[in-house]
Amino acid sequence: MAIETMTIGKAITAGLRKALENDPRVLLMGEDIGKLGGVFRITDGLQKDFGENRVIDSPLAEAGIVGTCVGLAIRGFRPVVEIQFDGFVYPAYDQIVCQVAKMHYRSRGNVKIPMVIRIPFGGGIGAVEHHSESPEGYFAHTAGLKVISVATPSDAYWGIQQAVASDDPIVFFEPKRRYYEKGEVDTSLTVATAPAMHRARVLREGTDATLIAYGPMVRTALDAANAAAEDGRSIEVIDLRSISPIDIATVTASVRKTGRAVVVHEAPSEVSVSSELAARITEECFYSLEAPVLRVTGYDTPYPAARVEEEYLPDLDRVLDGVDRAFGW
Amino acid sequence: MAKGEAARPQRTSRRKAGAGTPAGPDMVQLLTPEGERIERSTGANGVEYSVDFSDEEYRGLYRDLAIVRKLDIEANALCRQGELSIWASLAGQEAAQVGAGRAMRPQDMAFPTYREHGVLYCRGIDPIMPLSLFRGVDQGGWDSDKYKFNMYTIVIGAQSLHGTGYAMGINFDGKVGTSDGEAVMAFMGDGATSQGDVHESMVYAGVFNAPIVFFVQNNQFAISEPLERQTRVPLYQRSSGYGFPGVRVDGNDVLASYAVAKHAMDHARTGNGPMLVEAYTYRMGPHTTTDDPTRYRESAELEEWKAKDPILRMRSFLEKQKVADDAFFASVDADAQEIATDLRDRVLAMPNPQPVSLFDNVYPHGSPLVDAQRAEFTTYHASFEGSAH
Ligand SMILES: Cc1ncc(C[n+]2csc(CCOP(=O)(O)OP(=O)(O)O)c2C)c(N)n1
């Protein structure tokens, strides 16, 4: 065991550094990721140490970033791209959905695109428009892409390395408002022995209800579970980790035990990750449910102006309200 | 730059300079950094530029420059004090923006980025208008067509397509082809020129002969990335690939910026199609208040550009020409201060939005889903009334 304490942001930086060290074909591309180290400093110092051909400041064009990285991948590189903010991934959407996701299928398995698309996502940072979105559903809906989100420094450190090592294209969602939260990372594990990112994880055990979250809402769900404990309610908290595919077995095992499920995310609810979870849980746990699967999510509006974002985002009270409704059914 | 030099043939610079392709003799300039007036200057497009302003008009341009800088300083201060969540300063780009803004006619339409505060001011719009966006109160909220000034666009390059479409509409409406025709000015930075949207907009503008001027403020940086990350040729030369003329102007020279912008807009409104203007300038401050330029640029470079300051340049010109005296400059400073103070007061008085308003205007015809969520939201928040929440 070699336990180090680090922030989620620094854990991703350290994980990227390891990935660059371990495989000379790994390269990073994105806007302002070189000298500046990215607007969130996630690539801080990497260009200095690995050079301009491995940590590449791209021209200001997202379709260009992802599209050229498809070519680099065909050539045998393992590109890790940074999209500066969630709301700026859309110029690259066509490349991601039509090319990155489908190349393997189209080539009957001959062409792999082992690309990682890193996207800082979610709100709560007081930003202007396009800097606080949760677009994971668009990608989860696309076959051929895997979508994961990290919520702890350990997953940030190992998850990014697993993503880089995987031959599957992976959209990697980073909880930007949690970049500075600290936790322990066991750096003596390996990519193979660290908890695999395709599995969900029970972060807190409980018997009365299951809260399911991912990314920035995991912290909120844990806080809500602790608050509910004061009212004598025992809440289990699951960090989904993989948004697509969903590790449904871990989820259903929990819900069969607790009989209640509340799903929490920042993205709007309509046709979302929580819609999928509600359907799957209902199909598989129908006779164990004490209440319908409930959802606490962002509203079905565009992400609003910063001065009302607190009311838009699920918070402790709204999650507790969801739990109350599940108990009161 | 002497006027004779302007006729030199265009060359593609391969120099890897710290601040991108150097401004060469192909740059239109009517005022030297020392404030000396150059009578005429020929652009790379072969057009000879000049201005013929009255003393009053010269003073007016100085006043614009001084006021937009003062407002910018005030907004920066408001941001530092937590009254704005972010601010994108125009410092250094005042001449390019005042020149472009004053060159537009009332019937013309502007498609700005998030930095066009100077253009907005020169269009006669209350400078408070975009501050609600930077304060986090709303996301713009104005009527683009009413002000002939589209909302600020944050997604890099998108507005270039919108401007082109609007200009195509001017063609379809037959409002082009005379000296009273309409034209569009679409603004963007040097970084934006890399975006697919911008490329496509220039394809469309060329093909449809749209009355639009692409006004690129090359401030040498896209956040941390210097110009050579975006181009190997001077940006104005890009236009030839789309079949319309391009010209580079000294963006720190308000007279040249005005002359070039005015000519380009008249070119468009009279039915001659699009033009690309590259205003060669410098971003004196950080990209926004959240940026740290010490990570990626030398302070010596900033010092070099301070010597080309657009406002000092105009001031020396006015002084040399004896067009303005100390009393004039003092009165401009006093007016600028008053406008800035008034802006500050009104920002501080801006009410926060009602939380429930976040459900407004999702659709022109409304939506049962949004209505249901609004009702739930209201009930939920009412449940806290009277509690300490
Ligand atoms: C599509 C898109 N990608 C990334 C960003 C983030 N971003 C905001 S401003 C900026 C740099 C813009 O540079 P430039 O076009 O030169 O204009 P300037 O800000 O220098 O005026 C970037 C990368 C964005 N707003 N939109």
Provide the number of structural domains of chain B. Answer: 2
Helix content of chain A: 25-40%
Strand content of chain A: 15-25%
Helix and strand pattern of chain B: EEEHHEHHHHEHEEEEHEHHHH
Helix content of chain B: 25-40%
Bound ligands: thiamine diphosphate
Q: Quick one: overall form of chain A? A: globular
Low-confidence stretches of chain B: 1-20
Structural class of chain A: alpha/beta
Largest interface: A-B, 38 and 46 residues
Report the β-strand fraction of chain B as a percent range: 5-15%
Q: How far is the N terminus from the C terminus of chain A?
A: 46 Å
Descriptive account of the structure:
The complex is a heterodimer of chains A (329) and B (389). With 329 residues, chain A is α/β, with parallel strands linked by helices. In chain A, 36% of the residues lie in helices and 21% in strands. Chain A has 2 domains: 3-186, Thiamin diphosphate (ThDP)-binding fold, Pyr/PP domains (Rossmann fold, 3-Layer(aba) Sandwich), CATH 3.40.50.970; 201-328, Rossmann fold. Chain A has helices spanning 8-22, 46-50, 62-74, 93-100, 103-106, 136-140, 153-165, 217-230, 248-258, 273-285, 309-312, 316-328, and strands at residues 3-7, 26-30, 55-57, 78-82, 116-121, 146-149, 170-175, 182-186, 201-204, 209-213, 235-239, 242-244, 261-268, 294-298. A 7-stranded mixed sheet of chain A has the order 3-2-4-5-7-6-12, with helices on both faces. Chain A has a 5-stranded mixed sheet with strand order 9-11-10-13-14, sandwiched between helices. In chain A, helix 8 links the parallel strand 10 and strand 11. In chain A, helix 1 (8-22) runs parallel beside helix 7 (153-165). Chain A is globular, with a radius of gyration of 19 Å. Chain B is α/β, with parallel strands linked by helices and 389 residues long. Chain B is built from 12 helices and 10 strands. In chain B, the strands form 3 sheets. A 6-stranded parallel sheet of chain B has the order 1-9-10-6-5-4, with helices on both faces. The chains are: A alpha/beta (329), B alpha/beta (389). At the A-B interface, helix 12 of A face helix 4 and helix 12 of B. The structure holds thiamine diphosphate. Chain B: GO terms for molecular function: magnesium ion binding; oxidoreductase activity, acting on the aldehyde or oxo group of donors, disulfide as acceptor. Chain B: Its cofactor is thiamine diphosphate. Chain B: This is Pyruvate dehydrogenase E1 component subunit alpha.
